[in-house]
Amino acid sequence: MFGRWLGNKGATGAARGSALAGLAVPDSAGVLSCRVLDPVNEAVRQAEFVVTDATGRKVVAGETDPYGNVLATVPAGEYRLAVTAEGFTPFHGSASVTEGENAGLGDVTLQMSAPPQLPDPGEWEIEPMHSQIGFTARHIGMARVHGRFNTFAGAVRIADRMENSAMHVIIDAASIDTNVQMRDDHLRSGDFLDVGRYPTLEFYSDRFVHRGGTRWGVSGALTLHGVSRTVTLDTHYLGLGNGLEGETRAACRATTELHREDFTLTWQTMLARGIAAVGSSISIDMDIQIVPKD
């Protein structure tokens, strides 16, 4: 794979002395480039792009730079470029890349997309069969441990104005599952969750802030290990759909990061060279579907 960004020292072939000076281009390769703009000609930063070859195989992928540029060095050939960004309709284009040349698509303007329909006002509940609350923690400074909570329930009150909505989620602490029995027993013990004293984790929010497009910030109090802290869920609303039996459901993904010391989860042991056995930060990743409450 020949994916590179500006900043490499040295240049070869047609790239020398041009706007691509400073980009090292192998003899058998060329450059695919464009600039991604919004409808008012502002650069779209961190738009995701994927370059695929004639067989549909991904060759290189990445994000636009702070000026909206896509710049990739690829072997000579025929390519498709797909560009996607939050709140915009995707762009698809084609380019023929020749050796030592820049296949520039110029300015690519993304059009605004219509936001998905919000859930109807009323009482909704989390549908656990199609929802997941997972987490990732660092182990001994390099590996990552993935886990989830298998038992949880939640209610969502959708207001006439979405920003006035509220939600309450209760998680069974003992349902923690990392697929290793010995580790799960340790996590349930007094060293960590202490499920005998604190059998549940709870999250309550009545602050929904629209961040543009399909992004929302859902802020509230998370109570964990007997301690409450304010947490904000970075939420991507996915829209409405219908289940197999025709029932209406809404879906979202949400992420946040917790620091376990904030919740007095301070157990730690140090390995050789001062490496912590368990990292202090825990990434939370949730896939949630809600359905109207009966």
Write a brief structural summary.
With 294 residues, the protein is mainly β. It contains one helix and 18 strands.
Descriptive overview:
- The structure is a single chain.
- Helices cover 3% and strands 52% of the residues.
- It is mainly β and 294 residues long.
- Strands 8-11-12-14-15-16-17-18 form an eight-stranded antiparallel beta barrel.
- It contains one helix and 18 strands.
Feature tags:
294 residues, mainly beta, 8-stranded antiparallel beta barrel, 4-stranded antiparallel β-sheet, 18 strands, 3% helix, disordered N terminus
What's the SSE pattern? EEEEEEEEEEEEEHEEEEE
**Low-confidence runs (pLDDT<50, min 5 residues)?**
1-17, 270-277
Secondary structural class: mainly beta
Fraction in beta strands: over 45%
Q: Quaternary arrangement of the chains shown? A: single chain
| Main sheet specs | 8 strands, antiparallel, barrel
N-to-C span: 53 Å
The largest sheet has its strands arranged as 8-11-12-14-15-16-17-18
Residue-averaged pLDDT: 85
Number of strands: 18
Shape, principal axes of CA atoms: globular
Q: State the helicity in percent bands.
A: under 10%
Number of helices: 1
> What Rg do the Cα atoms give?
24 Å
SSE arrangement:
Blueprint: E1 29-37, E2 48-53, E3 58-63, E4 69-75, E5 77-84, E6 91-97, E7 102-109, E8 122-126, E9 132-139, E10 143-149, E11 152-158, E12 166-172, E13 176-177, H1 181-188, E14 200-212, E15 215-224, E16 227-242, E17 248-259, E18 278-292
Parallel strand pairs: 1-7
Antiparallel strand pairs: 1-4, 2-3, 2-5, 5-6, 8-11, 8-18, 9-10, 9-18, 10-13, 11-12, 12-14, 14-15, 15-16, 16-17, 17-18
